Amino acid sequence: MITVPEPAGPGAFVHPALFYQDFDGYVAGVGDFVRAAVSAGEPVLVAVPGPRLDALRESLGGSADGVTWTDMTELGRNPGRILAALQDFADLHVSRPARIVGEPIWPGRSPAEVLEATRHEALINTAFAGRPATVLCPYDVRGLAPEVLSDARRTHPTLIEGGRELPSPAYTDAARVSADCDLPLPEPEGGAVRFVYSHGGLAEVREHAEAWARGTALTPARRGDLVLAISEASANSLSHGGGKGTLRLWTTGGPGAGVVAEIHDAGRLADPLAGRRRPSLASADGGRGLWMIHQLCDLVEVRATADGFTLRLHMATP
């Protein structure tokens, strides 16, 4: 028997990690969670990797009706996009506590993706603080590295393990976890094209990026997306990063072949949720630039350190 987290009470946010040993344990744990929500008349979103969706639907039978299903390999390819989708779902059901299954880390994720997904898991606690919602996050104990499971214990207040739900002694605040995610970024193996810009140079940044991107394997549409993302990041440098910045561009090979654009400036990230939640229409800034960058790119690596602010933007090539 799997322990099902109690529904979130008024103003309460519940964020347990489900540590499962095998696929049967996965289906049982997530299935019990969804059935309990359906029985309580609560809205349910299940965002898990695609291969698991069909198995869960089949195991739930009639209880699957009315559940919102999302393939996390598409939604969460860039982990920076997940949080807004979860909040959007909860916002659609403000009169009832939302129940969400979110699996942002699965075997096969690259180390860079795992790091940004870990940051996402920590920031969920900040973004949903005081909201009546429950977000259950499954973790594959046998398929994931021990350090990934250790981080899950730090980002989740409670753990469901061995059929019991208990407080996590390692749980810590989001700011500490996010700071620990700011590891040094590896240098590009084959070198990079470098371009320095300052006030009045935004048009030159776009021209430089466009000319470089034409020599890559990106489709015309994705080249446009890349240039737009670079333009937004560079504009942020000029407005909030000391009025100047550095753009580096390079390509990668192998299974994760693609293009990478890195923007570095002297800015600071005042709001760790900027770009990860839908920007407010009432705000003059609202993080719209970072929001757009997250929507356009396949992965966004964020580093906010004493040396300044760095965005590394990834786009896969065919």
Describe the structure.
- By secondary structure, the protein is an alpha/beta fold.
- The protein has two domains: 13-180, Rossmann fold (3-Layer(aba) Sandwich), CATH 3.40.50; 193-316, Heat Shock Protein 90, CATH 3.30.565.10.
- It is built from ten helices and 13 strands.
- The strands form two sheets. Strands 1, 2, 3, 4, 5, 6, 7 and 8 form an eight-stranded mixed beta sheet that branches.
- Helix 1 (23-39) crosses helix 2 (50-60) and helix 9 (220-240) packs antiparallel against helix 10.
- It is elongated and about 60 Å long.
- The model has no long low-confidence stretch (mean pLDDT 92).
- Poorly predicted runs of 5 or more residues: none
Described by the principal axes of the CA atoms, the overall outline is: elongated
Number of structural domains:
2
Level-1 CATH class name of the largest domain: Alpha Beta
Helices and strands: which structural class?
alpha/beta
Largest sheet features = 8 strands, mixed
**What's the Cα radius of gyration?**
20 Å
What tags apply to this protein structure?
alpha/beta, Heat Shock Protein 90, elongated, eight-stranded mixed β-sheet, single chain, 2 domains, Rossmann fold, 318 residues, 24% strand, five-stranded antiparallel β-sheet, 10 helices
